């Protein structure tokens, strides 16, 4: 019984010291990085989300649709390279809202986000329509993009 109590006490002390060690490993606040990303005191900032929805156009020509989707992807890459898009991607399942995909734009201006989404050939052709929302998220969100190419073997 005594050895069991000592074992449990030892495990608890080890767990607590590990937790303290992990707590001490927390990165230090980086004012320069926070400022460069536009972070507020919580490390957050406003963005604009654009939800792409099914548009009104019904394009049966597969070659035409392929061309529009290629232009859609090229436009996403261009906007990402310009620092305007920080997240983009399709939804993997149908939903009652007919949401097809989303963009998170690096702006708090809905008007600016709308100008950017209107550069999309698939939006221009009516394949996609959109809804625009203000959103508040981590100011560090744009940093993931610099690592995306390191984990992607191919581009869609």
Describe this entry's structure for a reader:
Residues 63-135 form the YCII-related domain. Residues 1-19 form the signal peptide. Belongs to the YciI family. With 156 residues, this protein is of the alpha+beta class. It has two domains: 2-29; 35-151, Dimeric alpha+beta barrel (Alpha-Beta Plaits, 2-Layer Sandwich), CATH 3.30.70. 44% of the residues lie in helices and 22% in strands. The protein contains six helices and four strands, in the order H-H-E-H-E-E-H-H-E-H. The chain has helices at 2-24, 31-37, 62-81, 110-117, 121-124, 145-151, and strands at 44-54, 85-90, 99-105, 128-138. It has a four-stranded antiparallel β-sheet with strand order 2-3-1-4. A hairpin with an 8-residue loop joins strand 2 and strand 3. The longest helix is centred in the N-terminal third of the chain and has 23 residues, at 2-24. It is elongated, with a radius of gyration of 23 Å. The protein starts with a helix and ends in a 5-residue tail after the last helix. The model has no long low-confidence stretch (mean pLDDT 87).
Proportion of helical residues:
40-55%
Average pLDDT rating: 87
- Give the overall shape, derived from the CA principal axes: elongated
| CATH fold-level label of the largest domain | Alpha-Beta Plaits
Alpha-beta classification: alpha+beta
Count of runs of 4 or more consecutive helical residues: 6
CATH class of the largest domain: Alpha Beta
CATH architecture of the largest domain: 2-Layer Sandwich
* CATH level 4 superfamily of the largest domain: Dimeric alpha+beta barrel
Overall domain count: 2
Domain YCII-related: 63-135
Signal peptide: 1-19
InterPro entries: Dimeric_a/b-barrel (IPR011008), YCII (IPR005545)
Keywords: Signal
